């Protein structure tokens, strides 16, 4: 519902971006914002290829939905790396609920994004006022599929939409989220330990996984919790 968090990232990152994968929920307001966004980007960056991945819900508000969201994001990440052979992946975690932002940040660290970023507007009240001022006009994009009609809707408020999507670079900050690279061999070691119910793990690492809710103790041994099983499925890409 805040399309400028994507367009300002593309506009202000200062890195060449050829492809954008846009994750959206199946909500009318979000669909409208996504069409406004993709139209504005196509006009400013005609070479930019935009791929929209529609999630199967209008919100992500349960732990089951959050794990599924995490799994979808991880599969997209692997597809960009392994199939499309992207030189770099810049992960923008702005927008959506806080659980989505934190989940994407974790995925970015585990799967070694080339940068995890968040957009901060210097005066959030101003951008929110602008969004609400044009909310009814933006909603006009919600269920329109005809490219000519979409273009006509944009041109009716071209100056306002351009100002909304591409504000002055001085009005917002692109913050790089601190991440540490996750060594592949250590991740593999943890995954093998999770698959083997703790076998091969140090006592300290088993204790850590218990504390994080991935293992639970059963007598003198440990076993995966449902939470741990769900996380393992995401890491394995199942």
From TrEMBL:
Domain of life, source organism: Archaea
UniProt cross-references to Pfam families, sorted A to Z: CARF-assoc_HTH (PF24744), Cas_NE0113 (PF09623)
Cross-referenced InterPro entries: CARF-assoc_HTH (IPR056479), CRISPR-assoc_prot_Csx14 (IPR019848), SSO2081-like_dom (IPR019092)
Domain CRISPR system ring nuclease SSO2081-like: 2-137
Domain CARF-associated helix-turn-helix: 184-237
NCBIfam families: cas_csx14
Name listed for the protein in its UniProt record: CRISPR-associated protein Csx14
Organism: Methanoculleus receptaculi
């Amino acid at each position: 519902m805040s399309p400028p968090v994507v367009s300002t990232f593309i506009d202000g990152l200062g890195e060449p971006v050829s492809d954008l994968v846009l994750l959206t929920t199946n909500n009318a307001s979000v669909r409208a914002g996504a069409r406004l966004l993709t139209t504005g980007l196509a006009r400013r960056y005609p070479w930019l290829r935009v791929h929209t991945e529609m999630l199967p819900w209008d919100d992500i508000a349960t732990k089951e939905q959050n794990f599924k969201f995490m799994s979808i994001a991880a599969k997209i990440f692997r597809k960009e790396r392994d199939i499309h052979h992207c030189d770099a992946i810049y992960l923008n975690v702005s927008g959506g609920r806080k659980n989505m932002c934190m989940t994407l940040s974790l995925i970015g660290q585990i799967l070694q994004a080339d940068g995890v970023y968040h957009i901060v507007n210097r005066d959030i009240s101003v951008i929110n006022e602008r969004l609400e001022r044009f909310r009814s006009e933006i909603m006009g994009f919600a269920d329109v599929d005809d490219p000519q009609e979409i273009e006509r809707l944009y041109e009716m408020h071209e100056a306002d939409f351009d100002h909304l999507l591409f504000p002055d670079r001085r009005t917002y900050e692109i913050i790089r989220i601190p991440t540490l690279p996750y060594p592949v061999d250590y991740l593999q070691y943890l995954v093998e330990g999770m698959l083997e119910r703790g076998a091969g793990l140090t006592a300290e690492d088993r204790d850590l996984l218990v504390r994080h809710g991935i293992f639970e103790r059963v007598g003198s041994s440990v076993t995966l919790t449902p939470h741990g099983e769900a996380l393992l499925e995401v890491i394995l890409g199942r």
